[in-house]
# Entry
Amino acid sequence: MKKRVMRNLKRFPVLTVVWVALLALSLFGCAKKETTVSESGLFKLRCVTQTTASETIIADHLGFFADEGIEIVYVGSLGQGVSQFQAIAQGDIDVFTQGHITNVVQARLAGLKVINVAPGFVDDPENHHVTYLVREDSPIRTLADLPGHKVGIGGPGVCIDGFIRVYLEDRGLDYTAVEYITMPQPGQPEQAVLQGLIDVTTSHSPFGGVALARGGVRKIGSTWDIFQSPSAGLATRGFSEDFIAKHPDIVQGWSNAMYRARVFSKTNPEYAKQACADYLGLDVADISVNVYDQHKNYEPEYVQQWFDLSERLGYWNKGDASPEDCYTNAFVPKDVPASDANIGKQGI
# Structure
């Protein structure tokens, strides 16, 4: 069996590191922790402490999860190089609230059967998935000027160096001439560009907005400039297939609450910004709330665009995975209560 597994890994060289990490977790990780019910009778659903998935913060803050019999338990931040999918494999969390279609497919090809249940944020002309920043006195004016410069990234990924590669490649520019500097801590690239340690940031929300509000930097582009599509920011939220089989009612309730939060964020943006600012310990003026997909279901067109992009960048070969296998629309949320629209005005 071991020989057969290793032969299969040769078909997916980019997945080898992921597979080895998952194998190490299964062999040496701590014993799986069973999810329990709280004293108040709510199902304790464990997730990573939030940094950017603000609909989770809002749904928790407004009691949407409690309405569904769920208590969110934040387990802390992940260690450097550890993905939420690995944490699910180890049994430390129940739900993933970060990542994109590419990450989910890679995890599935590596043997971890996770699946998207609800869409997250999307890209928008005003609120970008990724914003590219330089110092105010930088000679860099557009994304076309990136070759020959240092770009700060949280780590390799389709929405980091991949998006830049596509932009430059489509214009006949040398994408290999970009030097990437890994800076995994949130806010680190923005500080580094001010200090002159790097030339450009790849800033995810809310940190791009924070940096612009504080001054000393300017924007040279965004993911919307590259793709002109909401799908460029499509974030993923979901569970393992095993968890779904054991707790379908919890998955449905979680999907309901997350949808309510997405709709609420659109109708009450200022209230949502304040809730996220309080949670993250930031000034509300520095916060830009993500724009969320208002669909109840996953849009096949968005998923296909991520597949096409990932295959172009070599994350897997065409035919190795199917778009329909990485998401489900089986837990389409219930209608949002009409009273949600007034929560931000009346308080809770």
In short: DSSP finds 15 helices and twelve strands in the chain. Residues 1-33 have pLDDT under 50 and may be disordered. The first strand starts at residue 43 and ends at 47. Residues 248-267 form the longest helix (20 residues).
